[in-house]
Specification:
Length: about 475
């Protein structure tokens, strides 16, 4: 029995009897093309709208804007025009932020009569009680469906603040029209947030934000969404004499975003979420960019060498920086490599993080990746994943809990690398787990890769699994 599906430009042909993972989709003929075993030729069906009633963790457009891109920008007020549930979810998912989050708490009467007045009053209330660097206003599914125009409301508020000479009359108030249903996945939200934040660029001079004037070694990190990771990369750069103007948005402020146009180079760390932002900067402000991966020792070495060449840094300085970190971590990394060699890994993350992790895990730790699941990958992502994965590895697009459980039991990995969404499921199955986002440590950079190996080793060898199994 065969079924042909179309994923963008890709035809997917799955043989139910031949494909060992089809048992994961009992009774779900529409999911067959999304769950495959790698044959280095077939791609899973992908980039499709979630079916109504489907249980998925793939997130939404609002998630992509508010949580992924905006949540780590410091001293920002986030005002979510929604029922309380959207605000709670967005705050609970990534609570380690440097901002305040509020909601207009839309009720039934607001749905009937409209919530624009409520939003208008809420923005003015924030301006009276706080002095933020910016106010971000978010559209959600409910308020978009009833026709509330958040951009028009924001425009009216700005007009009133200016006419009254309010203390926050110059504070940026940005309207993110990112209702969850506007995209197939959170990727649409990335685009909406990037375009809106791009409006802030070139609105200040470097001397107004930093003590030192522009230099030929100024760079931006684009697409890093962890303060710890940003700091780790910045420390490495400092040893080479490179200054980071802005880490967009892992360690950013509004003023830092405003001076990004003064950089000599943009270093893109997450292509999936921020390549669009780098392209806009190159087109408008003629700041070139390179794509670099700072997960894994070889990736870090390659990135520093490329950056050194582009910025014309003395090769001895680059080599000394690399040698410092190699010598510092060599013995510890060799120990973990010996202990982890041959262990099986299942990765369940966003496409770019999965791609960043796969190579170093297989090549530098010599572990075996037996499965990859992603929530919002596209054809291009899966072409790269298929190329790197060994034959027979499981690939699942937009997995639900049932599919993940069956794939895990089939693959029997020694470690499961994911985010907090799957933690409880994996633990119940008795499988060691680590959070690939590294919420309490750093996995990026030379030292970070050792932290990763150490955490994987610790999870696999924890005594708790003897009791579970």
């Amino acid at each position: 029995m065969e079924k042909t599906q179309n994923a963008g430009d890709t035809n997917i042909i799955s043989d139910i009897n031949a494909n060992s993972t089809n048992k994961n989709v009992k009774g779900r003929i529409d999911r067959i093309g999304h769950c495959i075993t790698n044959d280095n030729n077939t791609l899973p069906a992908c980039a499709e709208f979630t079916q109504p009633g489907d249980f998925s963790e793939r997130s939404c457009t609002f998630h992509g804007s508010k949580i992924i891109i905006n949540s780590h920008i410091k001293n920002v007020i986030h005002l979510i025009h929604s029922p309380a549930s959207c605000a709670y979810y967005s705050w609970d998912y990534r609570p380690d932020t440097y901002s305040f989050c509020f909601t207009t708490d839309i009720k039934e009467e607001d749905v009937v009569f409209g919530g624009e007045k409520k939003l208008y009053d809420a923005i003015l209330k924030i301006c009276e009680e706080f002095n933020p660097d910016a106010i971000f206003v978010y559209e959600t599914c409910q308020t978009a469906l009833i026709g509330d125009d958040i951009s028009a409301v924001v425009k009216e508020v700005k007009k009133k603040l200016k006419n009254t000479g309010h203390k926050n009359k110059d504070t940026p108030i940005l309207a993110f029209e990112c209702a969850g249903f506007k995209g197939k996945t959170q990727n649409k939200g990335h685009m909406i947030a990037n375009k809106k934040l791009f409006e802030l660029i070139a609105t200040k001079e470097v001397e107004e934000v930093l003590e030192q004037p522009p230099t030929q070694y100024d760079v931006n990190i684009i697409g890093d969404f962890s303060t710890g990771s940003s700091n780790s990369i910045e420390q490495i750069f400092n040893k080479m004499g490179v200054r980071v103007l802005c880490s967009f948005t892992g360690n950013a402020t509004i003023d830092r975003i405003r001076i990004m146009d003064s950089a000599k180079l943009n270093i893109v760390h997450c292509m999936k979420s921020s390549i669009q932002f780098a392209n806009m900067m190159e087109k408008v402000y003629e700041v070139p960019y390179i794509v670099s991966n700072f997960f894994g020792i070889q990736n870090c070495c390659d990135a520093l060498e490329n950056i050194g060449k582009i910025l014309d840094i003395d090769k001895k300085v680059v080599d000394n920086t690399i040698d410092y970190y190699l010598n510092k971590n060599e013995k510890e990394l060799e120990y973990y490599k010996k202990e982890l060699k041959g262990k099986k890994v299942f990765i369940c993350h966003g496409a770019q993080r999965a791609l960043n992790y796969m190579g170093p895990i297989m090549e530098e730790l010599e572990m075996e990746v037996v499965g990859v699941a992603t929530y919002f990958a596209n054809k291009e992502n899966y072409e790269k994943i298929v190329k790197q994965l060994p034959k027979g590895a499981v690939i699942i697009d937009n997995p639900n809990t049932y599919e993940l459980e069956n794939a895990i039991m089939d693959c029997k990995p020694d470690i499961f690398i994911s985010d907090s969404k799957t933690k409880e499921l994996v633990h119940k199955l008795g499988i060691p787990y680590i959070n690939g986002r590294a919420p309490s440590t750093v996995y990026i950079g030379f030292d970070g890769f050792v932290n990763f190996a150490k955490d994987v080793y610790g999870a696999i060898n924890s005594n708790i699994w003897k009791l579970v199994k």
